[in-house]
């Protein structure tokens, strides 16, 4: 078809030129020939403005204003603020949520369950009509089907449905709150953005009332590092707001609104005041020369002082240091990795330190390198566990252990403990026998290390 069209317009062009060129100079003929060629070629290629299908395609890319385009940046900020305000007004307020609860209770359907009130689909739709337009998105067949379980009458739990609505409203409110700190408006928060969010959140958390303002900056740093350590594995310096909402960290942080939070819950919550003070206190205790930084020797006393010298050497080779010393932020990453060795992000951190040649895998040579200080003799018996590690991990390649192999094996915490920690090694070796007291184990390990 294309060849036929080409022949058609080329023939027309030749005939037009033959008739029009009589009595004209050579230059005039060439000029007219070029004009006609351009015209017909453009029509053949669809270059005319007629029937341009791409005009019907909606615009999907908008260039971000440059730093020097102050007016455009201001316009973008104002339009985002208006958009977020509109989205906020679409959410249920306290009075509307309370009214919805009364409607649901009023429309519960018998037979009455001794444990919880139930509602049928017909009554569910009736409540949806009475609740107002803001609730329309909650009263759909899809939502009802999600909450329908094993009730013999085809009803759903009123409490479960109400909790579902509360969770959705909370998520949207939190997303809008986080988006206010998204300066670029791209759905990401940089470290400084999240720091500002948490700093302004502190006064709303009763469990943090006892914190001195001089400690706020250290608390914010401690809190923010957990988000970035686990949600930014590639260390891009920004994390998706969607990822923040999807993980449990924000729930843990906002749990501090509970004035009656138990002591056990506070101790297990990274964001609580006791937890933050514990981590920062450990850092100060390790800093013997009080210069605000940790040397390799100072870090060697971390925990039970059983980390091997080889591992500590790798930490200071790979991690960010300042004149060979570690700052508090780098220390937080170190602590998060060692306290969460079952998590993929922590395994990734430790694996990078174990992978000395940056090969992407560990082999027998790598393991032997970390075992060279663990030729620990007990009753003249030398323990070697290379084969046992490969048996535990069961890597795809029988001679190489990758990070993914460690994660898939669910034995990553045990393997890494064996390789980097004397205490972890002894615990594994004596898992079926009574373990000697910690001080004896530590002293033996340190003597062999030297």
From TrEMBL:
DNA damage recorded as keyword: no
GO MF annotation terms: calcium ion binding
Principal subcellular localization: cytoplasm
Name listed for the protein in its UniProt record: Serine/threonine-protein phosphatase 2A regulatory subunit B'' subunit gamma
Location within or outside the cell: Cytoplasm; Nucleus
InterPro entries: EF-hand-dom_pair, EF_Hand_1_Ca_BS, EF_hand_dom, PPP2R3C
PANTHER family the record matches: SERINE/THREONINE-PROTEIN PHOSPHATASE 2A REGULATORY SUBUNIT B'' SUBUNIT GAMMA, SERINE_THREONINE-PROTEIN PHOSPHATASE 2A REGULATORY SUBUNIT B'' SUBUNIT GAMMA
Cellular component terms (Gene Ontology): centrosome; cytoplasm; nucleus; spindle
Stretches assigned to the EF-hand domain: 342-377
Keywords for this protein: Calcium, Cytoplasm, Metal-binding, Nucleus, Repeat
GO BP terms in the entry: B cell homeostasis; cortical cytoskeleton organization; microtubule cytoskeleton organization; positive regulation of B cell differentiation; regulation of dephosphorylation; T cell homeostasis
Keyword Calcium in annotation: yes
């Amino acid at each position: 078809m294309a060849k036929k069209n080409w022949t058609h317009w080329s023939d027309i062009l030749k005939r037009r030129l033959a008739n029009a060129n009589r009595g004209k100079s050579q230059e005039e003929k060439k000029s007219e020939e070029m004009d006609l060629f351009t015209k017909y070629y453009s029509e053949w290629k669809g270059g005319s403005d007629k029937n341009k299908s791409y005009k019907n395609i909606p615009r999907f890319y908008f260039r971000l204003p440059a730093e020097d385009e102050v007016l455009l940046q201001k316009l973008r900020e104002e339009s985002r603020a208006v958009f977020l305000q509109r989205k906020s007004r679409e959410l249920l307020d306290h009075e509307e949520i309370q009214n919805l609860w009364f409607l649901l209770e009023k429309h519960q359907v018998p037979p009455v369950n001794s444990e919880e009130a139930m509602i049928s689909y017909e009554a569910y739709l009736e409540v949806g009509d009475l609740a107002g337009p803001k609730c329309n998105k909650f009263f759909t067949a899809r939502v009802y089907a999600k909450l329908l379980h094993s009730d013999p009458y085809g009803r759903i739990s009123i409490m479960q449905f109400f909790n579902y609505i509360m969770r959705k409203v909370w998520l949207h409110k939190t997303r809008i709150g986080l988006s206010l700190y998204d300066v670029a408006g791209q759905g990401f928060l940089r470290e400084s953005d999240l720091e500002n969010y948490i700093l302004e959140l502190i006064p709303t958390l009763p469990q943090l009332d006892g914190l001195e303002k001089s400690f706020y900056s250290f608390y914010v740093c401690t809190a923010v590092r957990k988000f970035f350590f686990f949600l930014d594995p590639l260390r891009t310096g920004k994390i998706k707001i969607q990822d923040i909402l999807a993980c449990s960290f924000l729930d843990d942080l906002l749990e501090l609104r509970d004035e009656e939070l138990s002591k056990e819950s506070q101790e297990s919550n990274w964001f609580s005041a006791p937890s933050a003070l514990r981590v920062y206190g450990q850092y100060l205790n390790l800093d013997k020369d009080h210069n605000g930084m940790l040397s390799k020797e100072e870090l060697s006393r971390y925990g039970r002082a059983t980390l091997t010298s080889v591992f500590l050497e790798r930490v200071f080779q790979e991690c960010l240091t300042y004149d060979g010393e570690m700052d508090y932020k780098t220390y937080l990453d170190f602590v998060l990795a060692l306290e969460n060795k079952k998590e993929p992000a922590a395994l990734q951190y430790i694996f990078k330190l174990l992978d000395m040649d940056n090969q992407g895998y560990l082999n027998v040579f790598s393991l032997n390198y970390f075992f060279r200080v663990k030729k620990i003799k007990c009753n003249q018996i030398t323990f070697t566990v290379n084969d046992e590690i490969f048996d535990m991990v069961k890597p795809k390649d029988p001679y190489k252990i990758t990070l993914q192999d460690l994660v898939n094996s669910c034995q990553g915490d045990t393997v890494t403990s064996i390789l980097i920690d004397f205490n972890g090694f002894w615990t594994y070796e004596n898992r079926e026998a009574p373990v000697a007291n910690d001080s004896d184990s530590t002293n033996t390990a340190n003597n062999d290390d030297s």
